[in-house]
Structure formats: structure tokens, C-alpha cells
Amino acid sequence: MTPLGNTLATLLFAVGTVGGGPGVSPIKVNEIALGAAGFVELRNTGSAAADIGGWTIETCEDGIMRILAAIPPNTALPAGEYFVIVGSGFSGTMPPGLLVDAVHGTGVIARNRTGAHIDSIGLSSHSPCREDDPAAPCADSSLGRDTASRDTNHNSTDFTCQIPSPGENNP
Predict the structure, then answer these.
(1) Is the N or the C terminus of the chain less surrounded, counting Cβ atoms within 10 Å?
(2) A Pfam family name for this chain (predicted)?
(3) Tens of pLDDT along 43-67?
């Protein structure tokens, strides 16, 4: 490889790793519930605050991705904390986050400010949001990760039906 080729390969590798990717970033889609009272919970599993300003949360519906929420600039998510996007029918104490009309579709994707896929969950084999096999939908409960927010990039393994706990550690 030529020196220019080596430089380009190094730059491409660096650009590909800066934004992380599914399973790499400390920010996880940690819990989700669909509907007007639904929510999407992000969790910072890292040891330092993360700047999530400019990130988007997209829903996947009918094979199409749409922006559900855009996180305001300069939004920092402290280590171990949560940022929650809740539907307008949500009842209870509003955790730190944003209000939207509803959370619909067959999953969600968290994207950083450059549009890189950070983490996602899909609920059907046709959902562009899924990571490997989809998570099984739950009736009257949420889908959440374990208490450590482990991410194997296999939605069917990573998410289980749970008692909703937006803004709190999953049971």
C-alpha cells in the first residue's frame, strides 16, 4: 500500500471508531414502552458524562425511520444517569428528558450528532431498528435491559419484559 493509501486507511479506521457503533458507545437504549404513554430511556453506562446534544431518536415504522425526538444542544448525560423521551399520555413523575406525542413503531434507533447508529432495539424481523434477532414485544409492560444494561447486539437476548421503570435502574 502507498503512503497515501496507508494514511487514508488510518483515517477511515479512526472515523469509523470515533462515533462508536452498536455495542461500543456507553450510551444505551435501555428501556422502551410503546404508545401515547410510552417512553424511550437512554442510559449512560460509562464512567464520565457524555454529550448527547444534537443526537436524534428515530422510530421505525413500516420499514421507514422517522425522527421521534432531537436532543437539544449541550445536553450532558452524567455517568450512570438516564435521559427519557416520554409520550404525552405518560403519567407519573417526568424524568429528565423530552415530551413527544407518542412512541410508535417497531423499534427505535439512537443516533449521534453525525448520524452514526449508536444503539437500537427492534421488535420485528422486518424492523430496520433491530440488532440481530428482534426483541419479543410485551403486553402491558416495557422492554428493558438487565440492571447492568448489558449490550450483546442481539435484541432478543438483551431485552426482556419488565415492570416499567423510566429514569430508574431496571428491576
Answers:
(1) N
(2) LTD
(3) 999 999 999 999 999 999 988 999 9
